[in-house]
Specification:
The protein is about 30% helix and about 20% strand. It is of the alpha+beta class.
Length: about 475
């Protein structure tokens, strides 16, 4: 091949711009490069911080094995309460998708085909990632009681980021770190690139730059005053300022997911480490700043309930609560695994002493604990399974592991609801194409990961990294073919 032919071939390669370098952005970049596209990754963070939330998570995957999703995978995602959509539109959804009306195509509900494609491609995507040097295994989790099966990359999300970044570099992907995407470039109704803080980068665009949990104004806009009571669960979330969402909305994109909610995780506000989770609260009680209980601490397995309980914490005064234990908590096997903070517990020999350290009313706390203790019944205490050891005549009840708190010393951890990622995002189809408000694909624009809307009432645990990987790969190949 002559030099001129080589130059012509290079010039004729499809060009793809990926915004973000978490698991969704990296799978998009690698998959696009593998089919011959010239790929540029635009990343706000410096190289040492790149990887978004993926870099800091353990990356739990709702899988039965590397080749099969968990048994309840599709049921949970599609069973998420999405409000009360127009039944006439739902009837219409049973017909050939080619006949769907614009309101149905753009409707903010979970798309059955999107979920089916996610389930079908989960195993093959993990095998593909495995081919790039990542190992997967069933490892220990911080959840002492569980409702589903989980797989994890050995080395967590950081292993995904490092392996996929290496693969991208070897394929010639060009990384632009400390570069912020500002706006989409449009020509004739098609997306043809991105305007960044360092100029223009042209090509089909894959938006994979996360939600808006790092943007105080957007948190206030969508979550009201309570937005100030939350913070990103890990350092990567501070880079998620929402530009991807805003620029796509400016281009006419439709939305999906619940903009009033975010994936909440109960963490110790004193800690600066990623995911300083307090998953041990089912073995004690939760009280608010007034010294009162406000929720059933143990309605079911912790992995299925921690988010909903964290939201109830978020609704308390100043968005804070306290998980309180007595000396009996030491009988729970491996309890330390469910406490991820690097800060010590607050301890005192008496409840009054604990109340003083927590700066909550001592009389109220004493009355709360006395009422709770009096409601605890007799039965076998089985801390690693649902034991039905419940309170009687208490509001709110405690449904499992209800034993009196009557043995000093007493310990406590403060708890807030941290923001793992925001639920509201862009509506995409099962080809990862961003849809407009008429439900039609916006030419040249794809999206994947936490920027896309899927969740409404409750996060289906251990699916976020997985959907980022699956739809990032689909988006990258789509952008390379449609560029």
């Amino acid at each position: 091949m002559t030099q001129a032919q080589t130059q012509a071939q290079t010039q004729n390669r499809a060009r793809v711009v990926v915004v973000g370098s978490g698991v969704a952005g990296l799978t998009a970049a690698v998959s696009a490069a593998e089919v011959g596209a010239a790929v540029t990754v635009v990343e706000r963070a410096p190289r040492a911080d790149a990887g978004g939330n993926t870099r800091h998570t353990e990356a739990f995957l709702r899988m039965r094995s590397i080749d099969a999703v968990a048994d309840d995978f599709e049921e949970r995602l599609l069973g998420d309460f999405m409000g009360h959509p127009d039944p006439a539109l739902l009837v219409e959804s049973l017909k050939d998708p080619g006949t769907w009306s614009a309101p149905l195509r753009a409707l903010s509900v979970a798309d059955q085909q999107y979920v089916a494609t996610l389930a079908e491609n989960a195993g093959p995507t993990l095998r593909w990632i495995e081919g790039h040097g990542v190992r997967f295994a069933h490892l220990a989790t911080p959840f002492l009681t569980t409702s589903t099966t989980r797989l994890m990359p050995v080395g967590g999300g950081l292993a995904l980021v490092e392996a996929l970044t290496d693969a991208a570099v070897q394929l010639g992907v060009d990384f632009h770190y400390e570069t912020t995407a500002r706006a989409l470039l449009l020509e004739g109704g098609s997306v043809v690139g991105v305007a960044t803080s360092r100029g223009e980068t042209r090509g089909a665009v894959v938006l994979a730059c996360g939600g808006y949990e790092g943007n105080a104004e957007l948190m206030g806009r969508y979550h009201g005053r309570g937005g100030r009571h939350t913070r990103p669960v890990a350092r990567g979330g501070h880079y998620n300022k929402g530009e991807g969402l805003l620029m796509a909305l400016d281009a006419g994109a439709a939305t999906a997911g619940d903009f009033a909610l975010f994936h909440a995780e109960p963490v110790d506000p004193r800690s600066g480490v990623a995911e300083a989770a307090i998953f041990a609260f089912p073995y004690g009680i939760l009280v608010n700043a007034e010294g009162r209980r406000f929720t059933d601490e143990a309605p079911g397995p912790i992995d299925a309930w921690y988010e909903r309980i964290a939201r109830r914490v978020h609704a308390q005064t100043d968005g804070v609560a306290y998980a309180i234990f007595d000396a009996g908590a030491s009988e729970v096997p491996n309890l330390s695994a469910a406490i991820r903070t690097d800060q010590p517990p607050i301890t005192a020999p008496t409840l009054d002493g604990l109340a003083a350290k927590l700066e909550i009313p001592a009389e109220a706390l004493a009355a709360t604990v006395a009422e709770f203790n009096a409601s605890c019944g007799q039965g076998e205490y089985l801390p690693l399974e649902l034991d039905g050891l419940a309170t009687s005549g208490l509001t709110p009840p405690k449904s499992n592991w209800a034993r009196p708190l009557d043995k000093g010393p007493y310990t406590a951890y403060p708890v807030i609801a941290s923001n793992v990622f925001t639920f509201g995002g862009l509506k995409t189809d099962d080809a990862a194409r961003v849809l407009d408000n008429d439900g039609r694909p916006l030419p040249g624009l794809y999206a994947a990961g936490e920027l896309t809307g899927l969740y409404y009432t409750n996060y289906t645990g251990s699916t976020s990294v997985l959907r980022g990987a699956v739809y990032g790969r689909i988006a990258g190949r789509g952008a390379a073919g449609g560029a």
